[in-house]
Amino acid sequence: MIPRPESSGSHPEQPAEQQPAERPPAEPPKAARRKKPAAVEAAEAIPEKGAAKKGAGKKAVVKKGKAKKGKAKKAEAVRVRASGAHPVAGQLAPPEAELAVSPALGPADRERLLDGTHHDPHAVLGAHPVPGGVVFRAFKPYALAVTVVSGGLTVELHDDGGGFFSALLPLREVPAYRLLVAYEEAVREVEDAYRLLPTLGELDLHLIGEGRHEELWTALGAHPMTHQGVTGTRFAVWAPNARGVRVAGGFNFWDGAGYPMRSLGSCGVWELFVPGVGEGELYKFEITRPDGSKTLRADPMARRTEVPPATSSVVTSSRYAWGDAEWLARRAEVPAHEAPFSVYEAHLPSWRPGLTYRQLAEQLPAYVKDLGFTHVELMPVAEHPFGGSWGYQVTGFYAPTARLGTPDDFRHLVDALHRAGIGVLMDWVPAHFPRDEWALAEFDGRPLYEHADPLRAAHPDWGTLEFDFGRREVRNFLVANALYWCEEFHIDGLRVDAVASMLYLDYSREPGQWTPNEHGGRENLDAVAFLQEMNATVYRRVPGVVTVAEESTAWDGVTRATHHEGPSGFGGLGFGLKWNMGWMHDSLEYMSHEPVHRRYHHHEMTFSMVYAYSENYVLPISHDEVVHGKRSLVSKMPGDWWQQRAGLRAYLGFMWAHPGKQLLFMGQEFAQGAEWSEQHGPDWWLLDPAYGAEADHRGVRDLVRDLNTVYRHTPALWRLDTEPAGFRWVAGDLAEDNVLAFLRYDRDGTPLLAVSHFAPVVRHDYLIGVPDDVPAWHEVLNTDAARYGGGDVGGPDPVKPEPQGRHGFPASIRLTLPPLATVWLRPA
Predict the structure, then answer these.
(1) I need a surface site. Which of 19, 59, 133, 721 has the fewest CB within 10 A?
(2) Contacts of residue 477, Cβ cutoff 8 Å, sequence gap at least 6
(3) Where is the composition biased (Basic residues) (predicted)?
(4) In the predicted model, what is the mean pLDDT of residues 424-449?
């Protein structure tokens, strides 16, 4: 008997209407196995519903045949006596017919079932027509007796030893029947799982075998259903190298011996429909490896899991009623790169520690909406064993983490964000997975999800395993997973983590640790094909969804269409957006210098425009920039507390005006001074009115709100984000003054002028060149405003151009530049 793992806790209560599964109370003593309990005798006397009424005729009784111990001769056939019509689907053979076929299993089948290596248990268990009648066989370890009940027919099967029971009945066809299974202190009436046909059809199996099943989650995993009139759960798992697979769970006390699955052919899928098992049940797959050893594994396709550190999968189905139809109908109206797109990145377990998905749904949408962000980006929500990985080492690719609630609870959170007008992006991690022995690593005894070459399989940075992107079933697993989150949870976008580590065979590897591709190059052609397939499939099936690549190199065509070949000979990867890691590194490096030294690093703020239109970019100030000794965003700024906050405000103003979409990690919107920690999350106490410096932090948050508000109502800041016509330098060479000035344009030519001043002095009567067709300019945002915590230096009155040219423009305006500030001006 396989003991329950320590990680397995109690399961939720089954719904009242769910028929209970067969549950042997405990393993009986061997001495008790021959004892026939009175419960069986009583059960034999109780006709099933539909039996003849009392007095209408004598109930047929079949006596158990006695097999002589140790003899190899065929067992004597059962003799049946019946009078009058019999309410059994199969008709009895003529009375007193002598049948010579042995119903007992042969030693080879017995041994394979006992060892968990039988590929087709349904072929030998259940009921099958044979010459002379129908043979009934059951494999019920720890049972004292098994009885077949069909209409008015009650037949106790012969105990063949080892948990096997059988009988041969003189029937012309297989009847509908149930089993009475007697244990030490209980008798259970159950459906026989081995009388049922497979639950997966030929089309499912064909698509799985081809690696093209785009709704893979509907075929594999655990699915409560009614099959052939029987209520239960279908279990299906891909394990092509397994010698045998059995289902173990709370419903069989974690002993899968009596629940062998059948192989459905060359596609490598194993399947079993278990009657009586319903939602909330815990389960795993017991796999017999090629070497004969056994391993107990969580379901790779599990749609719900136990709360970590427990590791069992949980049977589940969704009943959630969505309320976001209006959001879904309009999200595809404008492509993401041509729409306002500012993102608040959040780590759900630590945003407000202790909140569940449903509690987050009451607070997060209101907070994000108040600050004016168009989207939230959730750090990985797929199940992961170690919280310190922040979700980037996934074991349950199809299950939202149970730490915060059920899958339907997560649906409720997404729905609430949509109803508040906020899009939902999710970090998705198809690059690698951890080595936990209960999860994907060598799942069926050999490399399956990982590459067979150890050098290709081992991720050099994180101690994890890389997916084998060249295997069609693995690509299918991942492509379907991307679709699953978008279709089942209405996710609006996937930010794909660690794309660079997927694209290069030599990523973080020394010479001799990698093998070139077939062309002699360093590109991982399998990963390229996978990313192209994933993007093309997602964009085809889910209108309005955007995919975002976290890609840190100069790979050509990350956001180019997959069918458009670039100079490198590759088609585009097909992403919608790409994180601009170069802009992030350069601009933060510039801001970290003392203002007196910034003149020598001016190019770090201008170089991004050299390649700004090579891809569709997001400007990311993410969690990665505020952990592991990198300091929080405000703490990166030099100077005293006033200068740090002023520098942060000026930087945010520059960022929101720069071509590209914006992303800001939680806590940075109110100038948190400490690094982020997943243990306690943002320092919300900084916004407590009782805190003396609360106004300083509230001021920065008010600025973020106003940046988003002006941004959303100024198409010049986003309409032409990916086109050179949307940007023009006014002055990119004012290094001595630490000044940057540029124009952003809407499609109709309406401009916005952004001027950033990164020196801690006031510059009066500073001339900035402007077009001569704008009669006056007025200030729409000044990061030095008093309400943000600044010195309130600036010009609230409209400024009229002077006819003297400047910076290559025919006119100029005279401004007072606040210290460490960004000013936005629009035509008056």
Answers:
(1) 19
(2) 216, 238, 300, 397, 449
(3) 55-72
(4) 97
Q: Where are the alpha helices (DSSP H) in 334-389?
A: 348-351, 357-371
Which tokens in the block code for residue 212? 């093209």
Enter the tokens of residue 444. Answer: 């069926």
- Do residues 281 and 249 touch, judged by C-beta distance below 8 A? yes
Q: Assess whether 550 carries a catalytic annotation.
A: yes
Catalytic residue (choose from 550, 604, 669, 706)? 550
Do the Cβ atoms of 478 and 530 come closer than 8 Å? yes
Which structure tokens are listed for 295?
Answer: 């391993």
Q: Which pLDDT score, from 0 to 100, does residue 23 have?
A: 53
pLDDT band at 140 (very low <50, low <70, confident <90, very high): very high
| Pairing status of strand 178-182 against strand 187-190 | antiparallel
Tell me if 558 sits within 8 A of 532, measured CB to CB: no
Instruction: For residue range 330-386, list pLDDT tens digits in order.
Output: 999 999 999 999 999 999 999 999 999 999 999 999 999 999 999 999 999 999 999
User: Are the CB atoms for 289 and 241 separated by under 8 Å?
Assistant: yes
Question: Cis bond leading into 170, ω under 30°?
Answer: no
User: Contact, 401 vs 372, CB < 8 A?
Assistant: no
Short-list 405, 212, 398, CA closest to 298: 398
What's the predicted TM-score (pTM) here? 0.89
What's the CA gap between 417 and 548, in Å, rounded? 20
Q: Which residue has the tokens 């965003």?
A: 633
Predicted local confidence at residue 10, as pLDDT = 36
Check: CB of residue 499 under 8 Å from CB of residue 550: yes
The torsion angles phi and psi of 742, rounded to 5 degrees, stand at -150, 160
717: three-class secondary structure by DSSP:
helix
CA distance 633 to 630: 9
Residue 50's alpha-carbon distances to 46, 55, 92, 127, 771, in angstroms, are 11, 14, 18, 21, 92
Q: 159, 415, 497, 586: which is the annotated catalytic residue?
A: 497
Cβ 77 vs Cβ 65: under 8 Å: yes
Q: Answer yes or no: is pLDDT of 409 > 80.
A: yes
